[in-house]
Design a protein that fits this description.
Layout: H1 3-16, E1 37-40, E2 43-51, E3 62-65, E4 71-73, E5 79-85, E6 89-93, E7 100-103, E8 110-112, H2 117-121, E9 123-125, E10 131-133, E11 141-145, H3 146-150, E12 168-172, E13 181-185, E14 198-201, E15 204-206, E16 212-213, E17 223-224, E18 237-243, E19 260-265, E20 271-286, E21 325-337, E22 341-353, E23 360-374, E24 379-393, H4 404-410, E25 424-427, E26 432-435, H5 449-455, E27 456-457, E28 459-474, E29 479-498, E30 512-535, E31 539-562, E32 583-585, E33 591-604, E34 608-619, E35 630-640, H6 641-644, H7 647-653, E36 657-671, E37 687-688, E38 691-692, E39 706-719, E40 724-743, E41 752-775, E42 778-795, E43 800-801, E44 808-809, E45 813-816, E46 819-822, E47 829-836, E48 854-864, E49 869-879, E50 882-892, E51 895-898, H8 899-906, H9 911-919, E52 922-924, E53 927-929, H10 931-938, E54 946-948, E55 951-962, E56 974-990, E57 1009-1010, E58 1017-1027
Parallel strand pairs: 2-8, 14-19, 51-57
Antiparallel strand pairs: 1-2, 2-5, 3-4, 3-6, 6-7, 9-10, 11-18, 12-13, 14-15, 16-17, 18-19, 20-21, 20-58, 21-22, 22-23, 23-24, 24-28, 25-26, 27-29, 28-29, 29-30, 30-31, 31-32, 31-33, 32-37, 33-34, 34-35, 35-36, 36-39, 37-38, 39-40, 40-41, 41-42, 42-49, 43-44, 45-46, 47-48, 49-50, 50-55, 51-54, ...
Helix pairs in contact: 4-5, 8-10
Amino acid sequence: MKIERATQLLFLLLISQGGNAAYANLPRGASASPVQVSAQANKITVSGTVVDVNGEPLVGVSVLEKGTGNGTITDIDGNFTMSVGEGATLEISYVGYQNLTVSAKETLGVLVMKEDTEQLDEVVVTALGIKRSQKALSYNVQEVKNDVLTKVKDANFVNSLNGKVAGVSIQRSASGVGGGTRVVMRGNKSIKGDNNVLYVIDGVPMGNQADRTGDGTGFGAGRTSSEGIASFNPEDIESLSVLTGPSAAALYGANAANGVILITTKKGAAGKVNVNVSSSAEFSNPFVLPRFQNTYGNVSGEAASWGEKLPVPSSYNPADFFNTGTTFTNSFNLSVGNDKNQTYVSGSAVNAKGIVPNNKYHRYNAMVRNTTKFFNDKLTMDLSASYVREYYNNMLSYGTYFNPLLGAYLYPRGENFEKEKYFERYDAELGYNVQSWTPGDFGMAVQNPYWVAYRNLRPEVKDRYMLYASLKYEITDYLNVSARGRLDNTYTEKEDKRYASTHGTFAKPLGRYAYSNETFRQKYADIMANLSKPFAGDFYANVNVGASFEEYDTKGRGYGGQLLKVPNLFAYDNIDPSTGVPSQTGGDNRKMNLGVFGSAEISWKSAVYLTLTGRADKPSQLVNSKSPWIFYPSVGLSAIVTDLLPETMRQSISPVLGFLKVRASYTEVGSPIPYTGLTPGTITHTIEGGVIKPFKYYPLPELKPERTRSYEVGIDSKWLNNTVSLGVTLYKSNTYDQLLEAKLSETSGYDYMFVQAGNVENRGIELALGYDQTFGNFSYSTSLTATANRNKIIELASNVKNPVTGEALDLSDIKVGRFRLREGEEVGTIYAEERLKRDQDGYIVYNEGQTITTESTEPYKLGSVNAKWNLGWRNGFTYKGFNLNFLVTARLGGIVISKTQAVLDQFGVSQASADARDAGKVMVGNVAVQPKDYYESVVNLDAYNVYSATNVRLQEASLGYTFPNSWFKGTPFHSVNLSVYGTNLWMIYNKAPFDPELTASTGTFGQGYDYFMLPSQRTYGVSLKFGF
């Protein structure tokens, strides 16, 4: 066994087995050779060496004296020495290997541990945190270990999943480091609700805390600062299970239709104190930028660069505005314990500076977890506490306002940008510094980009604490009961400081100040009984029943206004009362749910498995409706075909086909409406601007949950002596009773009403192909994931009437920003409503020196933002202590729109505008148009700014070396690994002027539209890990 693999397995031992989990298996065989045992009174001292089948020492193997807390672990050479009672029995365990039980009376020596393939490959965490044999599952589950998440660092570890699991679409938000991530499994299912996945931490669902300001389709400011899952320390994660279909998550009820990511955190391990330390430094630069021109200048006195060709090309490059971003991550974890009590402690710090000046992100995590057993190991108590503090400064806005990229990109090419770096000057008459910006506001309230960065400040601080407790009591060897609870609180403070002389659109002369705070609170508790027992000979039953309670509550308060007396004094008592705006929100964001659930798995000869689940929820959103309960059933069947074959046949085909499982499942899950206050007697009001806002939605007593019915079939197989694996899943889901919004007439007394109707279908295929082989000291592994999803709106609504007036409501064509919902199309189809006007012969109407005439039209389809295929190809090579890994990802199909490119063309700063001037014209059909006239005409026409979203890239690569432990003899260090890595290293294919994988918002309708988003980033890093 290579040292590199040994240290990895040590890492897994320390973080993944906690408590008695490492010793739960029955003893297996071992081979031994002589070594000495010396007696000392009633104690004897035993020593030995533990190795794998290749003779490589295993580091960190747990050696325990049975029935006591006395134990030790092997050193870097696999050696151990300990004093035990005469006649004692030693239990030797190591993650991924068969347990050994050895009598201390025997002659010990070199103990050989054999790999336990069932431990390594067959056990995964499923719904409610229950560990099950993977071969029993009737649905697709993909497990990701910690080293996959942490080999290439990312402040938001969710981004590390991209390309590594099938059936998942992952898009990074354009807010830079610390920003949120959009994760969608098996397509958009809900029109009005959330399509992001549900995150579950140690069996407990986590509320979504995403800050989604705006949808990315407008001209104003918008940002996606972060979300609850982004604040997790990835070093605290033991493993992660991806449940792509609702069948896998039916026991979670609401929101499970979107799939689930199950996270299992680390526990302490028995043995001596073990500490692991990790430090990394990474540096980032823009990855994909628009192509700028520097050969044509501006006309004197004008901001646009439509002047003559410059005698000498301008030295200004907008890319120079960006800094080299830095992210420093330091973390440690400590594990200590015996067979009765284990403790895990960790801490981490992430300190980042973005590529935009004065953009910063800091995060500090602390966690402590203790697992203790009582009453002869019948009662297990698990307690943990976590604290996270996050600080954001100036997370970048997309859109026009408060966005430094506009000034940097549009700056006139004939001017000297260097002077703009002195973004303020002292005004003696006013007595304070004012903004300095020579080009003007470009008609779009554009400001000096450095002023935006340093004088339009938006700091944000989050404090979050999480408390978790669980008790599990073993009534018998086949029956146990458990209870657990979790409290998750986040307190956020935000400020908006606009200094004096900020553009008048945003602030009065003395400046503007706003403050807000928000408290998010989640409470969760459940109780469950679990039975595992054989019956009727070859049958075995696993049964779980339980009940749960959860509550989410968000409250916010704030105030803001123009400064009254003292410039740049950002305080409540300096706000002009005539412009002050107090607000209080959050009353309509309280949700509760009561649920009961159960599951039963019946197996026959460990080869055929039938799984039934059911859950009933009573969500607060449906209170006072006629159907306040939601029931979710599921049924699944799987069979291990190779285990059902006659022994002789199985042996004969095993070199070719070693394992084949077929599976099928049906699930129905429901999701309550995402709003509260829509049923009679539950209407809530918000206070905004000091005024109570009237409720605008007509109350509906007939509210129902959205329902998703899903079918899936698949196979899992291993070939060629288990070196090749192939998994295929076919699925189809339909989501009914969509929440559609209809506009009401003023006479009704309400603005809108919700109609529950419609049917959105998703169908597709998930493929996972892998190969893993070892050739002496060299090993190679590769995996290919491929996902195709087809989304279609089968039905919207018909024959819907206004409940007050009786008039018909048209819901056959619903507009959402640039998107339209129409039967037969996708959720994500963009339409246009304007085009260049043409005469009766089909030629555009154009007179030189004038803009081209445009006209409104019936909406016409431009395309869908949804990908047709998502692919990931991962490769890993190891040779002795070296390891090399790289990942290539591809997105095939879909469109994007770049308003950024359109505006750059309009102002003559794009390379396209320079190329057109070099050619002297732009051809529109058979009509030659002057470049300036053309680009100023089409700037607001989406149809002329559409690009393919297809792209292929080298997503990540890493090269590491694990130093031989013999180098560190006589020191406390072991498992020392040094690696270099990078992300977004090479864009192999891309026709869009920006990175199509970026998203302006993690919401459903914020995709596929670029309006001065922060560019994606290429990152290089170095990481050092060691233990002692």
